[in-house]
Amino acid sequence: MLFKLSFKKPSQSPEKDTLMLWQLIQHLFLGSEGDIVAVQPEQNQLLLLLFQCGPQSAILQTLQTLKELLEVEPAFYLTIAVSPVYSGETPITGAYGILSSLLKERRLNEETQIIVEPRASSARSFHVKVTHGEELSGLLLSGNEEAVLGWLARQLEQLNQKDAAAEDFRAFAAGAVEQAGKTVMKLGLEEAVLIQPALKENFESFYSTGQYKEWLHAMVRPILAAMRAKSETRDPVLAFMLDYLDKHYGENINLNLVADKLNLSPGYLSTFFKEKQGINFSDYLNNLRISHAKELLMNVDLRIQEIALQVGYLNVNSFIRMFKRASGLTPGEYRKSHASGGLPAAEDGT
After folding, report:
1. Cα(first)–Cα(last) distance of the chain, in Å?
2. Of the candidates 198, 197, 213, 208, which has an alpha carbon nearest to the alpha carbon of residue 149?
3. Residue 308 and residue 208: Cα distance in Å, rounded?
4. pLDDT tens, 204-236?
5. What are the beta bridge partners of residue 13?
6. Measured between alpha carbons, how far is 311 from 350 in angstroms, rounded to an integer?
7. Spatial CB neighbours of 87, under 8 Å, sequence gap ≥ 6
8. Is the pTM of this model over 0.70?
9. Are 273 and 281 in contact (CB under 8 A)?
10. Which H or E run includes 257?
């Protein structure tokens, strides 16, 4: 069994609360000497190994008692993954891996949940679509707050209707932040807007769609406000440059080419762009290309060389170097860590 502890709100003494809970769990399952082994793989997890434990039904009955005891606890809840009763020797690492996967089947609520097997859900493919699509980015660019907030609410409701796991909600929210970040970069709003980092820890304590809705609304509203403020004074030269780069980033373009189209000197345009955007022309173009490359990497059928060409890199080694500089990972490493459902991904250069 693998127990994961989640706090609904910050605890004044999390270590003490955690220790007391782990002791309670071990006491409930304590049998004769040598019948139980407890391991703490992470600070908020307890792995309990039972030997000569009898049928799984007896274990589930004890867990149900634990769940009832915790129903009156307002500060935290447990996610409990239960493996089958194994016969013979089973590697601990393998059993822990199976139990860790079961923890991801948790649904979004504040109750202690006991998970014995994966539950059917069509949300996995759904959240990949909304996470890596362009719909939110397009709505943000429109500046229509009502449309943006309505879209976010509909996606959360669809995840609810599809019986999505809590993990799916976290993935969707992280993807929404990524789309918002791309929009901020395209419009040069980095200095005006602070986007909260889309790290897993941000959403780890969320247990309701209301929390996600509130958090996402707080994220997009400053972006929309900054866009409204900037639209009043947007320079036509900058507007042309950003629009041109957005449409032609996959081609062999450079500052000289854009300057020629505007009948301006490259030196003047370079200084102008840096003043307006707060970033060099070449860095902006590379960031734009890497952002689109991340989306293409979600398609595991595309080879790394193909993606490099599609986003404007004629040399795959240059693409890999620039991608790692921007994201801290090679394209192959990024694909393996972000691709849908853990599908096998091609290595760099293949």
Report:
1. 40
2. 213
3. 40
4. 889 999 999 999 998 888 888 887 777 666 678
5. none
6. 17
7. none
8. no
9. yes
10. helix 255-262
